[in-house]
Write a structure and sequence with these properties.
about 170 residues, mainly alpha
Length: about 170
């Protein structure tokens, strides 16, 4: 699909950093929301602050990104109008897009690894084993009142860490 200037729409997204930032916000918020919302709907989240993230922060990021995209396109088009004869520099556009995709991929990898690390740590807690993963209310209550309450489940039942989680 071509924009009114005869250039592809993705080119207009790369003209100004605001439209790129908006694209990052929309994509990150949308993907995060799609992963977190089903967990919240099923009731697997016991932290009340998760609702704030799902229903306040992620939508704010999403709509802020949606607002930034047309602003960035407008500012980028204004920059093109100031040039006597706009020339489509395909190489520069592809280079900007590659940098953009590389940086956002790196950012998403950092965020994803942190979320994964924290998820594995949470899955090693007795709260997760006894109340979330397995519904063993009497056994979990007995565990909490026993001398074993200072020992996490993974120390005896599975190996700790990601390798133990995968092997179990």
């Amino acid at each position: 699909m071509n924009a009114p200037t005869g250039r592809p729409v993705w080119y207009l997204l790369t003209l100004h950093w605001l439209s790129l930032a908006g694209t990052v916000l929309v994509t990150t918020a949308g993907i995060s929301w799609l992963f977190v919302l089903p967990l919240h709907m099923r009731g697997h989240v016991d932290n009340p602050y998760v609702g704030i993230v799902i229903f306040l922060i992620l939508p704010t990021m999403f709509f802020l990104g949606l607002a930034l995209i047309p602003i960035g396109i407008f500012l980028g088009k204004n920059r093109l109008r100031k040039v006597p004869e706009p020339v489509f520099d395909r190489k520069a556009a592809i280079e900007r897009l590659a940098w953009f995709l590389g940086l956002t991929t790196l950012l998403n990898l950092i965020i994803g690894t942190q979320i994964t690390y924290r998820a594995v740590n949470y899955m090693e807690t007795p709260q997760f084993c006894g109340a979330t993963c397995h519904t063993m209310a009497p056994e979990f209550a007995a565990y909490q009142n026993s001398p074993h309450s200072r020992v996490e489940c993974v120390e005896c039942h599975v190996a700790p860490g990601a390798a133990g989680w995968v092997s179990s």
